[in-house]
């Protein structure tokens, strides 16, 4: 189970890393709330949504860290539920 949670955390780091590289290399910055890609950012990086809701800036490094932790928590919940459902059978 530890390996699977670590894979979830790694996926979160990769997703946040992808958005960080995309936002740094995209010219001009297409990150406005009217762009359809913004919805993908909000779905895959929950810390960005929290930053918008509570009105605080999120740096790239904190976004990477928070997204890794969020995906690890989601992975822990998913893997615990998966084990519980397999035991019930």
Describe the protein.
The protein has 89 residues and is an all-alpha fold. The chain has one domain. Helices cover 79% and strands 0% of the residues. It contains four helices and no strands. The chain has helices at 2-25, 37-44, 46-54, 60-88. α1 packs antiparallel against α4 (60-88). The radius of gyration is 15 Å and the shape is elongated.
Set down the secondary structure blueprint.
Elements: H1 2-25, H2 37-44, H3 46-54, H4 60-88
Helix pairs in contact: 1-4, 2-3
Number of helices: 4
Residue share in helices? over 70%
- Number of separate domains: 1
- β content, as a range? under 5%
Radius of gyration over all CA atoms, rounded: 15 Å
What kind of assembly state do the chains in view correspond to?
single chain
Query: Average pLDDT value?
Result: 86
Shape: elongated
User: What about the largest sheet?
Assistant: none
Total strands: the figure is: 0
- Unreliable segments of 5+ consecutive residues: none
Series of H and E elements: HHHH
């Amino acid at each position: 189970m530890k390996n699977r949670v670590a894979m979830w955390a790694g996926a979160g780091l990769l997703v946040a890393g992808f958005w960080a590289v995309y936002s740094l290399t995209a010219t001009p910055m297409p990150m406005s709330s009217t762009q359809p890609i913004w919805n993908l950012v909000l779905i895959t990086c929950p810390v960005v949504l929290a930053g918008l809701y509570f009105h605080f800036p999120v740096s790239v490094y904190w976004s990477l860290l928070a997204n890794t932790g969020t995906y690890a928590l989601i992975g822990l919940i998913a893997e615990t539920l998966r084990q519980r459902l397999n035991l019930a059978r």
